[in-house]
Amino acid sequence: MAFDPGNLGFEQRDARLQLLLRIGAEVLAGELARGIASGARTIVVFHCRAVSNSDRLLSTGGFGNAPLRGRDATVPRREQGVNVAENLPETMTAMGFDEPGGPEVFRAETLPVPQPGENQVLIRVSHAGVNRPDVIQRQGFYPPPPGASPIPGLEISGTVVAVGKGAPPEMLNRRVCALVSGGGYAEYCLAHSAHCLAVPEGMEMDVAAAIPETLFTVWHNVFERGFARDGETLLVHGGTSGIGTMAIMLAKAFEMTVITTAGSEEKCQAARDLGADLAINYKDVDFVEAVKDFTGGKGVDVVLDMVSGSYVARNIECLADDGRHVTIAVLGGLKAEINMATIMRKRLVLTGSTLRPRSDEFKALLADEIYTHAWPLFEDGTIRPVMDETFPLADVAAAHARMEAGDHIGKIVLQVAHG
Q1: The domain defined by 217-352 carries CATH number 3.40.50.2300
Q2: Element (H, E) at 367
Q3: Is residue 48 within 8 Å of 365, Cβ to Cβ?
Q4: pLDDT the model gives residue 303
Q5: If we measure between CA atoms, which residue out of 210, 141, 212, 153 comes closest to residue 181?
Q6: What architecture is the 55-211+357-415 domain classified under in CATH?
Q7: Region(s) of the chain under CATH 3.90.180.10
Q8: What is the mean pLDDT of residues 9-23?
Q9: Strands 300-305 and 233-236
């Protein structure tokens, strides 16, 4: 189990020492021991660098730069210390929008091909995943963090065609998938070299593009912030979404019991097919009572919540003593009314996170843990993303409309490269 020093405001490599100094060995060994102690399939690692560059073809330090625009974008690449695999075009097509609105606001635009800065690589995009944060950004409620591309798209697959200073030169021409802070809905996209994972031989590029955002999000929130471990029970809402399907598969791979909710019998069956031990149609059944019945009144150990709002109080009813409630979206409302006495009586932990604005260093550490503990499950085919539908990049509006309709099961992906 990975303990995240970022929970206490630390993201540097001396976080373990600072953590021990701040909260004391007794607290660490007592209140947190259950979450990080060794178990049959429990992951034990103090969020520290453990993977060599040659293993993952990733850089381990530094911070990326924003895409170059205007005059800077035309400076010869080799003069800036960039190693280029091919003659790159000066411009590319991307899908952006001028003003927030519905899916119809998307339009094609021509932009300069960005140059990789220090520790960055330039990826010729094959496919890009479509995620709920992309929709919220398009609606005007989730602006990109400072320095990030305003073009939507948080995960991509493709081929590295240029390597910036400080990034491993052996990444050139490699097939990768990557977590990015924006810019995925384009023919070329920058990524921090340490946020990339090598695409396994035999894995299709549309499948690879469907992995990074959901995998990084689930790993951090379920296994780090939620301290999930083998033998525990997870309740995940939206079990047939990209996040939900990933959470079910990862939790089952690490020998957890999984309860999920969905809005139709078709979706419930899809969740069962993925391994969910109980799938609840929340439109027909009170999920709180169903959880209590299934667990014999004990409740669940971890809730992964994408709804928030009125669901929070109901989730708390579902939690067992010492349970952990992790919020990753607020689709049901920004505010919740809860009984704090219940929090105290059950000794609950309420936490949450957003991944996009976290530091490059944090994401690099997270990528290392994923490579060590989860990526082998994708390499050997134990876990394979559930694919819903693939749209051409030019039809991004239709892809967003499908996501907003809520009928999809699994991941929606854009095909960027032709052929």
Answers
A1: no
A2: helix 360-373
A3: yes
A4: 98
A5: 153
A6: Alpha-Beta Complex (3.90)
A7: 55-211+357-415
A8: 37
A9: parallel
Residue 339 tokens read as 């009984």
Q: State the burial class of residue 351 (Cβ atoms within 10 Å of its Cβ: 0-12, 13-18, 19+).
A: middle
**Where in the chain are all domains bearing CATH 3.40.50.720?**
217-352
Backbone angles phi, psi at 207, to 5 degrees: -65, -45
Q: What is the pLDDT of residues 164-189, one digit of tens each?
A: 999 999 999 999 999 999 999 999 99
235 by Cβ neighbours in 10 Å (0-12 / 13-18 / 19+) ranks as buried
Whole-angstrom distance, CA of residue 320 vs CA of residue 286: 18
Q: Is the pLDDT of residue 221 over 90?
A: yes
Answer whether 0.85 is exceeded by the pTM.
Answer: no
Percent of the chain with pLDDT over 90: 79
Q: What is the pLDDT of residues 275-311, one digit of tens each?
A: 999 999 999 999 999 999 999 999 999 999 999 999 9
First-to-last C-alpha distance (Å) of the chain? 42
Maximum Cα–Cα distance for the chain, whole Å? 67
Q: What is the pLDDT, as a whole number, of residue 266?
A: 97
Q: Are strands 155-163 and 120-130 parallel, antiparallel or unpaired?
A: antiparallel
Distance CA 318, CA 160 (A): 46
